[in-house]
Amino acid sequence: MGILVLICITVILAMIDIILKSCIEGNLIRKEERTVCGGKVILRKVYNRGFSMNLMEEQPDTVKYVSAFSTIILTIVQLISLMRKKCCAFKKIGLSLMTAGAWSNTFDRWLRGYVIDYIGFQTKKEKLTKLTWNLGDFFLITGAGIITIATLFGKKK
Questions:
Q1: With b meaning 16 or more CB within 10 Å and e meaning fewer, what string describes 69-97?
Q2: What pTM value is reported for the model?
């Protein structure tokens, strides 16, 4: 895939998540729940002031700066990888997904002071059902998974 295509995909995916967060912010009351997909997916508005699982929520400034620094480093790594012809296409795609998720969540932290999470899943385990994510989180997880698989099963030099 071309450099410009993957950069555009990164920007578009980050914008989709930012727009969805704004829609949730404007249309749901905090902790209100609405089910979709036959009750399997739960839409709710949750504010996350920390990292994943509210880790370090009592230190929002640290979270904000670490998030920004990590996002900038990830963006630099993505751009370097996109420019390298020998870099695996799957790694480029994975980095693009991760960068989209990182920018979306960092945008929230700097603009709102928290990340809006809005997707949960109905499960048999109450603790798992209470977990709430956003699209950017899924981009980060999926991108990391793609990179891991590409690294483990890619061609050895």
A1: eebeebbeebeebbeeeeebeebbbbbbb
A2: 0.91
